[in-house]
Amino acid sequence: MLDGLKVISSVLIVYIFIATGSHVWAGVEEGRRLFVEKGCTECHTTERPARAPTFQEFLKEKGPPLWYAGSKFRKDWLRKWLQAPEPVRPMAYNSIKERNPANHPALDGKEAEAVTEYLASLTTDRVKRGIVKPKKTVRGRIIFEKKLGCYGCHLVRKGKRVVGGLSGPTLVGAGKRLNPDWIYAFLKDQNFFIPYTSMPIYVGIVTDREMRVLSGYVAAME
């Protein structure tokens, strides 16, 4: 009797696993279809380029690459943002003169769910999990504000105010948006993710330990 119940339980577990996996895969494929159908490929790339673009080619890109979106973004944030997009960058992509037009198309709930599954499937093994934990520390704040002056380019929340520069993506709400381990991987090798960037290269300026502390500090930003 007990052996029979064990067999039935095992079969049910396998069935649930297969059914769940099939559902997720179906969501990924539907998301891929919608991503193309909605014209998202006109601004975003979802495959790592075989070669780095020239600088002139890079300047023509209309939006950030998404071939590592699953490693970069938190899934819950992505799902909500796709339904009610707000500018992450104060300035237009690849511009320090034009303001962000804030005209990103919105998706409905089902579309956002499917596209989120698709984007979440786009990962890179360059981002290792479990290295960085979100944590507000005095050392992190000193590195961010004093040693590197990050708010010269990024908006941050200081008490009830939002202060900082406009040339980089806002870091207000970064903790809800970004995967802590991606922040660390990006700081270590920015050009792997974006071939050209105005952001300084910090390798050799801060230690690996400081990069982890800084990543945790940014990942805790509200």
Explain this structure.
A two-stranded antiparallel sheet has the order 1-2. It is globular. The protein folds into two domains: 2-120, Cytochrome Bc1 Complex, Chain D, domain 2; 138-219, Orthogonal Bundle (Cytochrome Bc1 Complex, Chain D, domain 2), CATH 1.10.760. Strand 1 (155-158) and strand 2 form a beta hairpin. The chain has helices spanning 2-37, 55-59, 69-72, 75-83, 109-120, 138-147, 174-177, 180-188, 190-193, 208-219, and strands spanning 155-158, 161-164. Helices cover 47% and strands 4% of the residues. It is mostly helical and 222 residues long. The protein is built from ten helices and two strands.
> Quick check: average pLDDT?
89
Low-confidence stretches: 4-23
Q: What structural class do you assign from the helix and strand content?
A: mainly alpha
Give the biggest beta sheet: 2 strands, antiparallel
Write down the CATH class of the largest domain. Mainly Alpha
Number of strands: 2
- What's the architecture of the largest domain, going by CATH? Orthogonal Bundle
Ends: how far apart? 55 Å
Lateral arrangement of strands in the main beta sheet: 1-2
The fraction of residues in strands falls at: under 5%
From the 3D structure, determine the CATH topology of the largest domain. Cytochrome Bc1 Complex, Chain D, domain 2
Rg, alpha carbons: 20 Å
